């Protein structure tokens, strides 16, 4: 509730906001793009394909890359498997919740499945928000949630023994 100095009227609206603005949503519906695919992630094309937004003060892009070791063992890559329909469903539930928590203007998420070699990206995420703080927080939350609830499993592909030639 806001009490305007010098008046006896009280308003349930925030101070300095007129009624027409107060009934507008805080942010329009978040744009969403989700792709789960076997093809390599083309980061340049994804960056070039971003739609500009005059309200964007922060664009966070995260690239998850397969390391060359898993549990202290050398690997040549990871084999990703998924239950596609359930993965898409879980991602959209995460997007719904993220939209409630932060004023994200858009999210684009690409996750690879199949064999991904060490050094190659398996995940690309882009979030567009008005401010960096909410962009970083939302991105961290989204990736943590993905690892917790989205049915995408990874299996290390062990490097074969090196043979002397």
Number of E-type strands:
10
The CATH architecture can be named as Alpha-Beta Complex
Briefly note the CATH topology name.
Aldehyde Oxidoreductase, domain 3
Query: What separation lies between the terminal Cα atoms?
Result: 79 Å
N-to-C SSE series? EEHEHEEEHEEEHE
What do we call the CATH homologous superfamily?
A: Molybdopterin biosynthesis MoaE subunit
Strand order in the sheet with the most strands: 3-7-9-4
Helix content: 25-40%
How large is the count of helical segments?
Answer: 4
Radius of gyration, rounded?
22 Å
What does this structure look like?
Helices cover 28% and strands 35% of the residues. By secondary structure, the protein is of the alpha+beta class. The protein has a single domain (25-158), classed as Aldehyde Oxidoreductase, domain 3. The chain has a four-stranded mixed beta sheet with strand order 3-7-9-4, with helices on one face. It is globular and about 55 Å long. Mean pLDDT is 85; it is low at 1-26.
List the helices and strands and how they pair.
Layout: E1 2-3, E2 10-11, H1 19-22, E3 31-37, H2 43-48, E4 58-65, E5 69-70, E6 73-82, H3 84-101, E7 106-112, E8 114-117, E9 121-129, H4 132-149, E10 152-158
Parallel strand pairs: 3-7
Antiparallel strand pairs: 1-2, 4-9, 5-6, 6-8, 6-10, 7-9
Helix pairs in contact: 3-4
